[in-house]
Amino acid sequence: MNRFSKHLDSFGAIVLACIWISPLMFAFWAAFHTTSDAVNFNLLSSWTLDNFRTAWDGAPWLRYFMNTFLLVTIVLIGQFVITTLAGFAFAQVRFPGKDFVFILVLLQLFILPEVLIVENYAVVSKLGLFDTIVGVGIPYMASAFGIFLMRQSFKSVPIELHEAARIEGCSWFGILLKVYVPLAKPTYLAYALVSVSTHWNNFLWPLIVTNSEETRPLTVGLSIFGAPENGVDISIISAATMMSIAPLLVAFLVFQRQFVQAFLRSGIK
Amino acid sequence: MKQSKILGLALSGALAFSLPASAETELNMYYPIAVGGSLTKVVNGLVEDFQTKNPDIKVNAIYSGNYDDTRVRALSALNSGEPAQLAVMFSIDAYDLIEQELIVPFDDVIKSEDEKKWLSSFYPALMANGKVEGKTWGVPFQRSTIVAYYNKDMFRKAGLDPEKAPTTWKELIEMGKTLTNGDTHGLMIPSTGYPYWMFQALAIQNGKELMSNDGLTTYFDDPAVVDTLKFWKSLSAEHGIMPSGTVEWGTLRQAFLEGQTAMMWHSTGNLSAVKKSASFDFGVAMLPGNVRLGSPTGGGNFYLFKDTTAEEKAAALKLIKFMTAPKQAAAWSIATGYMGVSDAAYKTDALKKYTASFPPALVARNQLEHAVAEFSTFETARVREGLNNAIQSALTGSKTPKEALGEAQKSAVRLLKAYQ
Amino acid sequence: MNKHANNERRRQAIYGWLLLTPAAILLSFFAFYPSLATFWSSLFSRGTRRNPTEFVGLENYTDLLNDPTFWVVVENNLLYAGMTIPISIFFALAMALWANSKISARGFVRTAYFTPTVLPMIAAANLWLFFYTPGLGVLDQIGSVFGLAPVNWLGQPETALWAIIIVTIWKEAGFFMIFYLAALQTIPTDYKEAADIEGTGRITYVRRIVLPLLMPTTLFIAVNAMINSVKLIDHLFILTKGGPSDASKLILYYIWEMAFAFFDAPHAAAMTVMVLVVLGIAAAVQFLYIDKRTHYQ
What we know:
The complex is a heterotrimer of chains A (269), B (420) and C (297).
Chain A lengths: L2 H29 L3 H6 L9 H9 L2 H32 L5 H10 L9 H10 L6 H5 L6 H12 L3 H9 L4 H12 L1 H16 L3 H6 L8 H8 L8 H21 L1 H12 L2
Helix pairs in contact in A: 1-14, 3-14, 4-8, 4-11, 9-10, 11-15, 13-14
Chain B lengths: L1 H17 L6 E7 L7 H15 L3 E7 L3 H13 L6 E5 L3 H6 L3 E2 L8 H7 L4 H4 L3 E2 L2 E2 L2 E13 H6 L11 H11 L5 E4 L6 H11 L17 H15 L14 H6 L3 E7 L3 H7 L4 E4 L9 E11 L4 H15 L1 H11 L6 H4 L2 H9 L5 H5 L3 E2 L7 H16 L5 H16 L4
Parallel strand pairs in B: 1-2, 1-3, 8-9, 11-12
Antiparallel strand pairs in B: 3-11, 4-11, 5-6, 7-9, 7-10, 7-11
Helix pairs in contact in B: 2-14, 18-19
Chain C lengths: L1 H40 L17 H7 L2 H33 L5 H13 L2 H12 L5 H8 L11 H28 L4 H10 L3 H30 L2 H6 L11 H11 L3 H32 L1
Helix pairs in contact in C: 1-12, 2-12, 3-4, 3-7, 3-9, 4-7, 7-9, 9-12, 11-12
């Protein structure tokens, strides 16, 4: 490709990139300036931390952050356990009805917890898990996507290793732990990154299941904060938004490569 | 869902028996903040105060978002067997809450003469939404009326008397025209968020109530009501003093502070926020009238939930009495801009001093004389939505006022038929 | 010998089922049972003080079909899907092609495209709120530089849904870009070299060679995007709440509103069943297509 088209390409790509990043940039700018300055785009006006102070006082962000952290951790642990067991079963164990059950599992890819909110809410309440972090996480633990990934990953483990461990006298469970799990580490990492991003950002289900500050995650906290009756204050909302996305954004910028690789891996069916 | 209620009750009953007889009654109170986040501190302060005075009652004040969020939260909690003893919810939710058998009237809980006196100590206009079928179901806490905020500096510049806000529709239009120029509109009435509230004010000023006071009938297609919507539309279409299309509720205060409009109609709950941030001289006035003056009341009431023990109800009543007592009502009013809910509140030193130094704080209270109950019927959320849509369709020009209101009336009739 | 083999098979079967038990329990509780329960509850009427709940068969469904709002919502969702899916795919492809080529500032570009993906939709909505604020927001301010009048993007029926569509595209395109990137990296470089030798133009190369090879990825993305067009409604809570006049209301939001704001669980259940049916059909289509492709390769 000639130099001109290369420059045209770069130009196009960069313009699009700037457009794409602009909402974040504007909000960043608004967060550090008073509402009046932000709205009038007084470029040389002074930077202020007042918005952050007001936003910080306005809601228990630390608590929200902790809740979200606990939530994604619990969900991840649950998912690891369940998808490992189920993935292994589908990959290496022969049992009757395997294919039929596998199709049922894949069906779950389409029976989203979000669509079933009304009934799931009833189920969670009956189990006494309303307004608990476990209640928020539990519908997601048997992740069909995760089971599928683990199955793929376990299938690619050379059968000799399995046999070798067998000969040494390991039980099925032992083989799973000693042979398969370590070999699937990259998949676990990839899945972890996808799961954490997804559940960190989940909104509708936590909105319904959580009621109090002790369980409310960041997304719900942010939406409540930004919805007062008597009007929105762009700078304060921007400050609050910045605060709540900072952890994940910083993690992303630092571990960019791993993030992208993770999403890449999980996309390759 | 009924099953889980029974299960929940059984469980809490069992728990109550299995726990050592604790001297503490625990109350979960759901409440909305309607003016922005930092008021949670004020509520927490009031609640702390109460707990110090009442060591045998523990209160969990749960901030739940705006009015809609709070209603959804409190009801979700109840539906799933979680304890909830009281909540501050929209004054207009009364019919639906009664219909779903979720609340008890205060008349059934109060016993002493003192308590009866307390129940009748509030401004009558504020009690209107809470009184259904002859009983009192809601007690005022954070109440408001619509008021007209206006930019005195702009008035001066346009050659108008800064102490005289418009008092009639005719003056509104004339003065609006004088104040409108290239950068500024004369008036903004918000038509997103709660358009029905603004519309109700205009309708009352034109002499017509939008609904009957038993929650069963609406009058959307009455000629006076249609004329009102035509008037609202004419403010932008014909007289050019308001922007065309809809005016955004959420950012209206900011628009006013930025000088994009000389006058705005908004809740008195915005008062403290405007006072803090206005860089110009501003005034607050009662809304202008046509056939009469008027504004609907607005805001939230305290409600007592039904599925609670007698001790919890008594404790909740104590808390409500405390929060609405003159001293606390005064403190809340000063912090937010909402009205003091009783005459006694305005007679406290704190509020007397405050209103003396800041007269705009009295406007909403003075307007109570002309105030009416806020729009409320059975199935209020859906009926209201029909009205909101009609208003927005007319203002954006996609339907004529007559068509839009005709449709809204038809669907309201359909929704209310089951209750008649 | 036979007995041994049989025992072995039985043991395997038991192990298999044991391993599956946790997943099976959870899936039953939170996917299969709720689906059935939703269908069941959609056959009853709503209980109130005056009319306790009773079996009404398909009446809730006919109510919905007679509800003008329902049809507005369906139309909105179809338009929403019809716009967000192809447009995000288009951007995703362009971004992937660019991010994969030798342009300057490639790292920055890729980061910029992918960043919206790591943000919660709620935060994204807040960011765009600043853009859409009438008069004071970024879009109107830019417009005023060009002499355009302020537009109430979120407050007008004509523009509200488009405003929502734009936020969705902004959020999703970067996510889909990753899948295209992965696929692009599996295209052997000899194809490109061969094309260069034959003097094929870049556009022809992309059209004739790259796109067909990316077909499976495109299908995969399309299905994902379709699921998201049902599932992704968080921004409605912040930006428009479905208004004005239901102009931007989407079906999952209407379900939520019906169940939690109007206290009408049966009608919400009926709508849920309809959505599940549509998603199920989509599932069937995907399996048929993707299966065919996999066999092909």
